[in-house]
Amino acid sequence: MKLLIRKVNIVDSASPHNGKVKDVLIEDGIIKRIDDSIDVKADKTFEGKGKYLSIGWFDLRVNFREPGFEYKEDLLSGCKAAAAGGFTGVLCMPSTLPPVQSKSEIDLIISKTKNQLVDVFPSGTISINRDGKELSEMYDMFCSGAVAFTDDKNAVQNSGFMLLAMMYAKNFNGLIMSHADDTTLSLHGQMNESPSSTQLGLKGIPSLSEEMMINRDLFLAEYADCRIHVSTVSSAKSVDIIRKAKAKGIKVSCDVAAHQLMLDDSLLEGFDTNYKVTPPLRSKEDIEALKKGVADGTIDVICSDHSPEDIENKKKEFDHAAFGMIGLETAFAIATTSTKGSLSLEKLVEKFTMNPRRILSLPVPEIKEGAKANLTLFDSEIEWTFAEKDIVSKSKNTPFVGTTFKGKPIAVFNKGQYLEC
């Protein structure tokens, strides 16, 4: 199959074609030619004028819910949602039933998704049943294809156990991903601790619970001299703590969920459970600090934190509703809209492409002749309104229906396949 992308702006800081307008010919999944003008009969032609072409986007944090919760999402529906959102690669969280804690679960994920357009990389749990008491079969999972280890939103509370996990993973260069939450401070919390939580009569989750745990994990990582990745930072002080740790030489990276760059805790006044997420939506001041962290490189990656939940778990009293929102279809649009004017397009693209792969020690695709075509075609300026029909995920738990964004994926290319978004 021959695919031709005409007159497209290439945005890839590692490519000699970066910043140039080129025609790109893809043949049988390989970039055959990149030139100023290519005259060839193609099976499909994409008009790229005013649009951009980058290496395929990668989402560092998704929940595909299989095995165990396929009614919320499954591996195949998750892949479709990822492709619709412009992603050609994702890291799957292990909080399934049973959890991804042995070779067999890793094998299931890899075998079931091997023919999908989207590359699905599994993460394994740190502990058996994600309860922070007994180490999972981390090395076996690593040998089978696990690229990171995390107990997802069950933060490891025991410091000695976390240190043991770090030192064990260091032996094979495994990556520990930390969800920062001291549950003795956040226990039973429903939203950010703020004047809004007081007015609404909801128990607050103080940013202190996140900041204390980040400090702990950084001390442990420094002591063990190993890598640590902090997932979904949400507070101004968290960003500052990580910024100082990086300057000190601690091997830390971090990401932020896209919705944290746009939504603040005042939106919960209507008790809409679609805004109930963890970490919780913080203040407008926190949002500005997060944007600054994205701009100065403290925050390495913007992820979707895609967390599908069915109607039964969301359409109930706020205190009893599940945390989480879907985000694959909107992550890039939220990031583009919220960082407009504060972050260059090239730097934004790096947070969706190179940085997540480098953190996971994965090969970074290239835009050059002879390379496998792992690409995302997108328009960073188009204005569009997100509608329920745009949701590809099995679940619909998002507050963004009806929101107008700037920036949208047009098509994705990977494994000799393509999809128009």
| CATH superfamily annotation of the largest domain | Metal-dependent hydrolases
Instruction: Write down the Rg.
Output: 21 Å
Q: What is the helix fraction of residues, given as a range? A: 25-40%
Give the tally of β-strands: 17
Question: What's the architecture of the largest domain in CATH terms?
Answer: Alpha-Beta Barrel
What's the CATH class label of the largest domain? Alpha Beta
Q: How many distinct helices?
A: 13
Q: What is the residue-averaged pLDDT? A: 97
The CATH topology of the largest domain is given as: TIM Barrel
> Distance between the terminal alpha carbons, to the nearest Å?
19 Å
The helix/strand class is alpha/beta
Largest sheet: 8 strands, mixed
Number of structural domains:
2
> What gross morphology would you assign?
globular
Portion in beta strands: 15-25%
Give unreliable regions as ranges. none
Q: Write the H/E string, N to C.
A: EEEEEEHEHEHHEHEHEHEHEHEHHHHEEE
Structure description:
- With 421 residues, the chain is α/β, with parallel strands linked by helices.
- The chain has helices at 75-84, 103-113, 138-144, 159-170, 183-186, 195-200, 207-224, 236-248, 284-296, 311-314, 331-338, 345-352, 354-359; strands spanning 2-10, 21-27, 30-35, 44-47, 52-55, 57-62, 87-92, 119-122, 176-179, 191-192, 204-205, 228-231, 252-257, 301-303, 375-385, 404-414, 417-420.
- The longest helix has 18 residues, at 207-224.
- 29% of the residues lie in helices and 22% in strands.
- Strands 1, 2, 3, 4, 5, 15, 16 and 17 form an 8-stranded mixed sheet that branches. Strands 9-12-13-14 form a 4-stranded parallel sheet. A 3-stranded parallel sheet has the order 6-7-8.
- The protein folds into 2 domains: 2-53 and 369-420, Urease, subunit C, domain 1; 56-359, TIM Barrel (Alpha-Beta Barrel).
- The chain has 13 helices and 17 strands.
